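Checklist before submission:
- one chain only
- standard amino acids only
- sequence pasted in full

Submission:
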Amino acid sequence: PNTGDGIMILDESIGEIVVGKELNEYPKVADTVIELELTANRGDCLSVHGVARDLSAALDIPMNNLEYGSDNKIKLGLARVAELKNSGSINGRLKYTMVNIDELHTSFVISLRLAFINELQTDNLNNIVKYIIHTTGVIIRAYDVTDFLVEEEDKITILANTKDNITYIKANGKELSILGVNHNSEAIATDNSKKVIFEASYINPTLVTNAVSDNKLDTDELYYNTTRGSEPDLSMGIKYLTYILESYNECNFFDGVLSSDDDSEDKVITVNDNEISNIIGKKIEKSKILSILIALGFKVQSSAEEAFGVTIPKFRHDIENIQDITEEIVRIIGINNIEAQPLKFIEVPRINTITNRYYAKKAFRQRAVSASFDESISYIFTDKSLLEKYNFPIVKEELDIINPITEDLNTLRTTILLNLLNASKRNISYSKKSIALFEIGTVFDENRNEKEVLSLIFNGQKEKESVINSGKPQLIDFETFTKKLSSIIGDFELRAGTEQNSLIHPYQSADIIIDNEACGFISKLHPSVAEEFDLPQSFIAEISFDTLIPKHINANAISKFQGVYKDLSLVIDKNLPYNQVSTAIKLLNLPLLKKYYPIDIYEDETLENQKSLTIRLFIQSLESTLEDKDIEESVEKIVDSLKEQYGATLR
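Returned file contents:
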C-alpha cells in the first residue's frame, strides 16, 4: 500500500534493522493480510484482538497473554491533577489517562498496517488512536487539555452526566463528547497538542442505539463500533496505548487512571447440553461445548447435571438465548463437520378438551343434517325488547354492549331461539312449508358469563309432500320432534318442565334430562308466539352443549346367555311421575336387571286417583342361564321397593 511519496522510511518498529536484509525476512513486514466480511451483530470482530479470539477457539490454539508495561518510572500521579465525577447512572465503562507529549510520529509498522486498511492519515496522534482501536477493539478518544490551567490546589474535573441513557462528557465545563455517539471537534487532540487526555469507553450498544434514535443525535465514525459492541476490557486498550506512545515517541504519562464502571449484572443463560445437541442434530460432548464457550470468552458455571449457566461477555451483546449459543458451537465445529440427517416428523397425540369439543360439534352437525335440519349461523346479538317481552334474562346494563351495530341487535343474546324464530319467519315468507333449523352457538347470562348451547326449531310439515302422504303431510308433532332430537343427541329423559319463558307451551313442554341432570328443555311453541311470528305449528329445544360432549365410556362384558323380557304392571298414584319410579328401581342396583322402560299408562274411572303403569324389564345373567327363581327374585325386589315407597300394587 501507499505509505508515503515513494520513500519507505524504516525504523526500529520492525525489529533490529540489518543492512542488506530483505524486507520479507522481517516478520512484522512479511505479514499476512486477512480480509473479513462481518455480519452487523459481530462488532467484537472489528479488531485484530477480536478476530484472534475467534481463531483461537476455532483452531484450538491458546491466545498469548501479552502484558505491556511502562519503562518510565518517574511519573506524577494522575489523581493529583485530575478527577472524574459521575452524575446519573452510566450504562457503560470509562477510563481516563493523561500524557504530556513532546514529539510524535507514526512508526513504520503502524503506517503500514493502517495503509492496508485504508485508514492512514497525516495526523500522527490520530493514526496512533486508530491503530489502537483497530488492534484492541477498545474505543479510544483523545482530548486536547493543553490550555487547561491547573493551579496547585485545582484539578481538571471530568464530569460524566447521564440523562435518559445519554452520557455527556465535559472537562472543566467544556463539552468533550457524548459517550459512544460523537465528539466535539474543537476538543479533539492533534499533533500540536502538548497535554492530552485519552478516554477509553464501553457503552451498552442497545441503549445507545435507542437513545440516538429517540433524540435524533448526530453521530461520528466511532458510533459504528460502539453500536455493534466494542471491547469492554478498557485496561488492555490503555496499557497498549501507553506502550505504543512510550516506545516510539517522546512523551510522559501520568501515573494511574481515572475509572468508572457500570454496576449492571451480567447476562446469564441456562442451557442444556442435550438440548444443544438436539438443535444441532448431532451429539456434542458437554466437555467440548464447555471448552468452546470458554475459548470464546464466555464464563461457564459447570455442574454435574445436564443444565449449566453461561455468563455472556459484554462484547457479545447479540447472544440472547440457547439458539444463539448453539450457533456459536456450530460455527466453531464447522457446519461441514456435522453429518446431515433426515428430518424426522414425530407426531404426538394432540387430543385435548379443545379437539374433543370440536369433534363433538362436528358430529352433532352431521347428525342434525341427517335428521333434515339446516344449520343457521347468526349474530351473538339480539333485540333486547324481544328478550324482555318473552321473559328471558338480560345482561346487566353495566356489562352490556355500549355501541350496538344496529338498533335491533342491541344486546348480547341469552338464548338463540329468538334468532331461529326470526330466521324461520323469513323462510316462511318465501313460501317454505317446512323449516327445520339448528345452531350451536354462544349465549350469555346476566353477568355476561358465556356458555354454548344447541338450539333447534322445527315448524310446518314434518315431511315432504309425496305419493305416500297423498301430498298432504301432517304437521310436526311432539313425538316426531322428540325422536328427531334423540337421533341427534342420543338417549335422554323427559320430566315435567321447569323452564319459565313465554315461548313454552304450558301443556306440551318438558325438561331434558341426561345422566340425571337437567340440561335443557323441549316444547311446542306457544300458539300466541307462533301467531306473532306468522309461523305454523312449531317445536323448539335448547340444550347446554357441555352436557352433550361424549364422556369416557367403560366397556362392559357382553353376556352369552339368553335374556328374558318381563312386563310388570303396577297401580300407582295418578300424580306420581315416572322418573321417581325409575330412580327407585335404579337404586336397587340389581345385577340381573340390564334395562327397563315404560310401555303403557292406563287410566279410567275405576282406578279413581290412581293409574296403571306397565314397565318392561330386561333380565339377563353374565354367568348362567336364567332360572324362574332368579327372575321372580328380581321382580319381587322391585315390587317390594315400589310398594314400600309409593304404595304400588300389582295390577
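Reviewer check: The domain at 564-650 is CATH 3.30.70.380 (Alpha-Beta Plaits).
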